[in-house]
Amino acid sequence: MSFQLTDEQLMIQTMVRDFAREVLLPTAMERDRTKEFPRGNLKKMGELGLMGMMIPPEYNGAGADTVSYALALQEVAYACASTAVVMSVHNSIVCETINRFGTEEQKQTYLKPLARGEVIGAFAMTEPNAGSDPVNQSTSAVRDQDHYIINGTKRFITSGKNAGVTIITAKTDPAKRHKGISAFIIEKGTPGFLVGKTEEKMGLCASDTTDLIFDNCRIPARNLLGQEGDGFKIAMTSLDSGRIGIAAQSVGVAKAALDAAVSYAREREQFGQPISKFQGLRWMLADMATEIEAAWQLTLSAAAKKDRDERYTMEASMAKLFASEMVNRVTAKALQIHGGYGYTKEYPVERFYRDARVFTIYEGTSEIQRVVIANHLLGDRYVGSLR
Ligand code: CAA
């Protein structure tokens, strides 16, 4: 199915493209070097409606659909992948989660400033010993009258240091396995909530990834998201949407790598002619463009299914799986086309290559996406043909 974007979707894409290429792109290389969190740019993105894209206007959101969100995220990722991951986690696994599962009070208190981009959101489920298998997390939440006391350590948390609001999952009843996991909203500065070590990473350097430590952290019981025991399903539902974001992010970075490769191949001369004249390179470029388009169609298809309010778990995993693996192939080829220069910091392709590496790992590894897809094909959740 090919997509006809609406005038509104095209308008959003143009607006975000202009912003991203004028404001984010010129400083992306410098941010990668300094590792400076893009706080000022995120504030501007909040003013443009990019930090609560799928949130209704009554909670300060833009009320946009998921297709528009994927278009916007792709444009931001084209310019700066570090900014894109903050935007993706904030929009899909924080704002959307509170909008979907939060009480009116939680939406008024937390969603409104998040959707304006005044506060950045984080999502903390992963632990040192529970990555792909979050049911085996060990952070605990023990009810004490009208509070919960949280103890445990979360790991690899995107925006952990810079977030003002964090959604965390913790065990309220360890005997009940996934049904004993609950989700909570925690504010920065709550006593007993500490930011631990910041990871030194290969890529996405301007986005912080940290440990979060909970040491007898008391939070009001009204900060429970949904009901006790809902935490795992809330996390899985949120990750379905998050995976569309990572697919769009992958497409954005891949397009940036392709454009860089095309312009380099046109300019660089060897053997008396531009290297773009050599069939070996032309075929590489053709394969790159074809794979990008395939990934984008999968992303749009999952986003459109979500917008139609249909179950889209499998499609989101397919888009995330294919797009994240695609961008690793495409950035590697773009670097190869640049030859020795591609391996230097003089050109942006080495950054694209490093940034893309984590896309097959976070928000569910490629192996987990295959588990999700196979479960849907072979289990009772699969209802016939793919469409
Ligand atoms: N939507 C709603 N419910 C879902 C669901 C979904 N997508 N997937 C599973 N569930 C429900 C099931 O229906 C089931 O509920 P019932 O018992 O009521 O039937 C329950 O959850 C358990 O399901 P499974 O038996 O399938 O669970 P599992 O333990 O086998 O795990 C898994 C499934 C897919 C492997 C899951 O553990 C998973 O996704 N793991 C990867 C975790 C992950 O993606 N981590 C990323 C962290 S966030 C991050 O990276 C953000 C960042 O900072 C960038």
What would you say this structure looks like, in words?
It is a single chain. By secondary structure, the protein is α+β, with helices and mostly antiparallel strands. The chain contains 10 helices and 10 strands. It has helices at residues 7-34, 39-47, 66-79, 81-101, 104-115, 231-267, 279-307, 313-337, 349-356, 366-378; strands at 121-124, 140-144, 147-158, 165-171, 181-187, 193-198, 209-220, 224-225, 269-270, 273-274. The strands form 3 sheets. The protein has a 4-stranded mixed sheet. Helix 1 packs parallel to helix 3 (66-79) and helix 3 packs across helix 6. The N and C termini lie close together (10 Å). Bound molecules: acetoacetyl-coenzyme A. Residues 89, 123, 125-126, 132-135, 158, 178, 232-233, 236-237, 239-240, 313, 362-364, 368, 371-372 line the site of acetoacetyl-coenzyme A (CAA).
N to C succession of SSEs: HHHHHEEEEEEEEHEEHHHH
Mean pLDDT across every amino acid position: 97
Radius of gyration: 21 Å
User: How many strands appear in the DSSP assignment?
Assistant: 10
Count of individual helical segments: 10
Determine the strand fraction and express it as a percent band.
15-25%
The secondary structure category is: alpha+beta
Strand order of the largest sheet: 1-4-5-8
The portion of residues assigned to helices is 40-55%
The CA-CA distance between the termini, in Å, is 10 Å
For the largest beta-sheet, the strand count, sense and barrel status come to:
4 strands, mixed
Low-confidence segments, given as residue ranges, are: none
Which ions and ligands are bound to the chains?
acetoacetyl-coenzyme A
Spatial shape: globular
